[in-house]
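input
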Amino acid sequence: MKEEDPARPSYRLPEGTSIGHVHLKVSDLERALSFYRDLLGFRETQRYGTQAAFLAAGDYHHHIGLNTWYSKDGPPAPKNAPGLFHTAIRYPKQGDLARVLVRLRDAGYPLTGAADHGVSQALYLDDPDGNGVELYWDRPMEEWPLTRGGSLEMYTRPLDLEALARMLENS
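output
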């Protein structure tokens, strides 16, 4: 653990703080809605004409905002420049991650990767504008891998996609 700098007062976020939503610049609103709403299953909660839309999982006001205010018909952001690496969307159950994997496969939507991180299982893909998206499921905390010293030990190992997809057959 890093020692605190006595010259700077210590501050930590209050317990219960969370990241509420991500707002993405997109080049084509309808194309982005086809991905986030129609393929991934987010619910559209509000629309501002042809320029912006807000989407949610469940009954929250919005988890994802999409807009074309500065980006309409623009090219994707370069991969080798500062910016968003990916938006991570956590699924409540492993079977939910299996279901979205099968949905993506059935739609012919390509993955850019898949990994077992010890604490989670993750699928990686890009949205139509090249924004990275991680779809993942967290293992229960009591199953997270720890070092001999008790620290969290995350890793990146191949995820068996066939075994994940077969979960649906066995449920």
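quick obs: The beta strands are 22-25, 43-48, 52-56, 64-67, 87-91, 113-116, 120-126, 132-138, 157-158.
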